[in-house]
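TL;DR need structure tokens for one chain.
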Amino acid sequence: MILRKIMEIYQHNIKIMNNSITTKNPYNGALLEKYLMHSEDKIDSILEVSETVFNDWKHVSLKKRTKLLRNLGDVLNNNIERYSKLMTEEMGKPITQSRAEIKKCIKLCDFYEANAERFLSDRLIETGAYETFISYDPLGPVLAIMPWNYPFRKYFVLLCPH
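>> reply
TL;DR here they are.
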């Protein structure tokens, strides 16, 4: 129900924006990029694919997932200037803050790569029951409506909880 309401709002905004979103440099107003909006059918397709991918991904070993997290940290590290410049151009964020945001994301990748196994392993806990344990299981696709002022870090809040 909530997703349907979001879709209605989204579709209304498409009409207002003539089926596209443009990004402009807030400092000088220069046009940076124009993106076409997705149709409702395309959004449905993306949601279906995300569910299919999740059903495969939940069986991938933690070791392989943490290796991918390391790779992600490397990609961020190798592109700090590129991504920082993009944030600064699109948002007007000072370049030093843009760099700091990327570096925080790299630190999250490092931290969770090193600690994921300990954090996500099942734990037996003492209760009055015969056996009680805590287990962390994949949730599936997550819809997040987030603020725009931390364009990289907002995704890492979901990817690497802190």
